[in-house]
Amino acid sequence: MNREVKCRPEGFWCAVDVWIKKPHVVNKRLCGATETEYRHVSCEELELCLCSVTGGSVRDFPHILTFLRAHTADTGHQTAPGWSVGVRTVIPKAWMQPGAAKLYKEVIVKDLNGQTVTFLPIEENSEGHIILKESNVYQVQLQEKTDDWMLSLHTLRPEQWFSDGVGYPRLTWLTSELLPKLAHWAAQDKATEFKSTLSLISVEKYSILYQQLKLKYKELIKVWPEVTDPEKFVFEDVAIATYLLVLWAEERAEKGITSKQSFVDLGCGNGLLVHILNNEGHPGKGIDIRKRKIWDMYGPNTHLEEKAITPSAAFLFPETDWLIGNHSDELTPWIPVIAARSSYHCRYFVLPCCFFDFCGKYQRRQCKKSQYREYVDFISEVSAVCGFQTHEDCLRIPSTKRVCLIGTSRSYELAEEELAEVKRTDYIMGRQALIDNSTVVTQKEHSGPHHHQGDGQEMTKAGCDWGTGFQPREKIETVRNCAALPRDFVDGIVLKVAMALLGLTGKKKEEEEEDKIGKESIGWNLGGSLSIREVAELLDQSTLQTLKKECGGLQTLLKNNHQVFRVEGGKVHIRDWRTRGTQTDPKRKSQISDALKTRLCWFHTHHPDGCPLPSKDCVFAHGADDLRPSTRPLKKHRR
Question: How many CB atoms lie under 10 A from the CB of residue 113?
């Protein structure tokens, strides 16, 4: 199969690396792969190298070398390395289950001059000899055409192709799924800002333990008492716990110790990570300013404390091996500092999420990086200043913020601790000086779910002598997604914006005709559209200032009122419920069924032409007599 693609060779190799290093992103039956170090060889050395990695089995298939070179560019006689040879081990998800599938091994041969990569599957037979699976050899090539490039897939023995649907995918899958993905990635020509997932630990060990813990703790989903999504939070914390358990096991093996590491989770939220780590034999505790309902379900062996954390001498942990910051918000930049000041041997793991500096929100200073990349770099800088050898990795969790930083050993000797502390103190004071008084005032005026205005005296009592301006999270969480605004305030804005839209005229005749759906809809006013900026100009300054204190502001309010408005491409329209279509998602259907007739129909009450739908077809109530009580809980997204 061939596929035209706009890219350069660099983009091709980036795409190939995704498939080699992270096959699970395309093939969901896999959970990852590991690689050996690649050997760079010349054309003359290629056969010898292949014989070495395949135990000589390549000699049984002399036409393999012909296939390798069949589609490569004619570069003449070269002695310089133009080929790269390595071995990857592909790990199926079913590998750790009863009747486990085997691991799959492939020799990866890259023709660096000809933009070609070949996959040679190998297996070990009953006699312990390595054999080459000739029937499953395939090759991906980038060929230059007159005006563009073409991505092509070649197979050695298509008529003998064998598939088990896992490590040996179907030939149709390679052509219909893999090749388009490679073409898409190659055209992007965009290397990721972050490392590959699980680059610091054994993928095999992680995969085995993750499946075990997932089965062990999945019952928590059924009894989850919080209003957050149980499946997301349970499996995310299982994945984070798995990572830490493998990391710590490898640390024990490296250091030759048997006792399991102790830990403190700062800002532990629902406490599930602490529960898993305690259950798996690691002594430690979690601390959070607010107790969650689920804490009472864990039992006495899970150690959780309800307490406000302030960066100070009162919150040092000299006997603790590891500090954890899992989406720790305003504490995130302080965790390397707390670890460094707790003891010379204290290490840390932090998973940055919301962007905070030492005192207030983090202010961007570089436009060439994404905000997330810049913030991760900032926390890494804090770690380095604190004297840590810092490592970065990417977790496999259902979150867009999944890059973790790990501070292990120190970059200075214990005797240099006093000088290291001077550097830490100077750095923190320098960062705090960057935030001027106006920014601090703004933070206090707009204090939200991460800030508490009344903690000044408590901070002083706790000995918060590490700097000024730090505001811990509120004990009682404030909702800032416009949902807690007064109903009259919201209704007034909705009515004003809707009437402005309905008052717009001058629509093209063709558009009016397209809006008509059957005879019953002729004459129903859909109004026009306004940009978010134009909608903002309809409101007074006092209203706008109130909305600015909410996450997302005016746009969030309009989207929250999706019964009335449709917000697309920065434009606000009146929603037409006649064109809502058929919901095919069972989960979505269930949500609509749960909410049916639990709110009054805005159009029935306020639209000059009434609701365009008859009462029996409208999901909202046409009058008080049509209402029924709601049974849906309000959703929150806090850990």
Answer: 17
DSSP string, 255-283: HT--SPPPEEEET-TT-HHHHHHHHTT--
At residue 631 the predicted structure's pLDDT band, cuts being 50, 70 and 90, is low
Measured in residues, the chain has a length of: 639
- 67 half-sphere exposure, CB direction, 13 A CA radius: 22
CA–CA dist 114, 107 (Å, integer): 18
Q: Which two tokens stand for residue 216?
A: 């062990």
The residues facing 322 across adjacent strands are: 263, 347
Among residues 130, 113, 126, the alpha carbon closest in space to that of 52 is found at 130
Which residue intervals of 331-413 are DSSP H helices?
A: 334-342, 371-385
Cβ–Cβ under 8 Å, residues 472 and 328: no
Q: Are 455 and 472 in contact (CB under 8 A)?
A: yes
List the structure tokens of 4. Answer: 């035209």
CA dist., res. 523 & res. 533, Å (int): 29
Q: What angle do CA 307, 312, 314 make, to 5 degrees?
A: 60
Which residues, at least 6 apart from 565, have a Cβ–Cβ distance to it below 8 Å?
494, 497, 498, 558, 559, 572, 573, 574, 575
- Residue 354's pLDDT band, with cuts at 50, 70 and 90, is confident
Q: Estimate the crossing angle of helix 334-342 against helix 371-385, to 10 degrees.
A: 20
Per-residue pLDDT of 162-199, as tens digits, reads 998 888 999 999 989 999 888 888 877 555 666 778 88
Gap between the Cα atoms of 387 and 119, Å rounded: 44
Summarize pLDDT for 35-52 with one digit per residue, the tens: 888 999 888 888 888 888
- Going by C-alpha positions, the residue among 325, 412, 422 that lies closest to residue 376 is 325
Residues in Cβ contact with 230 at an 8 Å cutoff, skipping those fewer than 6 apart: 220, 221, 224
CA angle (390 as vertex; 386, 392 as ends), nearest 5: 140
pTM of the model as a whole: 0.67
Q: Could you give the domains of the chain?
A: 2-188 (no CATH), 262-461 (3.40.50.150), 487-626 (no CATH)
The answer to whether 258 and 252 have CB atoms below 8 angstroms apart is yes
| pLDDT tens digits, 216-249 | 998 998 888 877 778 888 999 999 999 999 999 9
Secondary structure (3-state) at 185: helix
